[in-house]
From TrEMBL:
<dbReference type="Pfam" id="PF05163">
    <property type="entry name" value="DinB"/>
</dbReference>
<comment type="similarity">
    <text>Belongs to the DinB family.</text>
</comment>
<dbReference type="InterPro" id="IPR007837">
    <property type="entry name" value="DinB"/>
</dbReference>
<protein>
    <submittedName>
        <fullName>DinB family protein</fullName>
    </submittedName>
</protein>
<keyword id="KW-0479">Metal-binding</keyword>
<dbReference type="InterPro" id="IPR034660">
    <property type="entry name" value="DinB/YfiT-like"/>
</dbReference>
């Protein structure tokens, strides 16, 4: 990857869908979890957004940069606001990443990986969990969901 703007555009095509999915979730559905030890709808959304912030901060800083633990929201409005804020933060960091930072090698849990590859892994991670969210919401009884990608 040499064009961070192309990456951002592609990532946003997935993040917009996560945000659209949350538009059909009620506050009562935030605590839904498909199995006892699984993440709730709210926890999964926070994980998706928080992980992206961790990945982009790691690329920007050239070293693993852990994210902050998010406080679970009480309402869907609070969750949507948190995801929107995290999205803005990720985008701001992404737009500041240089070509040199994309090519730098980063030790990511004992694996040397370039910033570009780490960002691709971040997007893949988000897509994976967004797929889980589709299943969660179907199981919670939501029938009308957005298309899996937004262009």
């Amino acid at each position: 990857m040499t064009n961070i703007n192309a990456f951002i555009k592609d990532w946003q095509s997935h993040r917009k869908v996560l945000q659209a999915m949350l538009d059909v979730v009620t506050t009562e559905q935030l605590s839904y979890r498909p199995w006892e030890k699984g993440m709730s709808v709210s926890e999964l959304a926070l994980h998706i957004a928080g992980a992206m912030n961790m990945f982009v901060s790691t690329v920007k800083n050239g070293a693993y940069t852990p994210g902050q633990k998010a406080t679970p929201p009480s309402t869907i409005e609070e969750l949507k606001a948190k995801i929107a804020a995290d999205t803005e933060q990720s985008e701001a960091i992404l737009t500041s990443i240089t070509p040199e930072q994309l090519e730098q090698s980063i030790d990511f849990f004992g694996h040397p990986i370039t910033g570009a590859v780490l960002l691709q892994n971040a997007k893949d991670h988000e897509i994976h969990h967004k797929g889980q969210m589709f299943v969660y919401l179907r199981m919670a009884g939501i029938e009308n969901l957005p298309f899996f990608v937004s262009r």
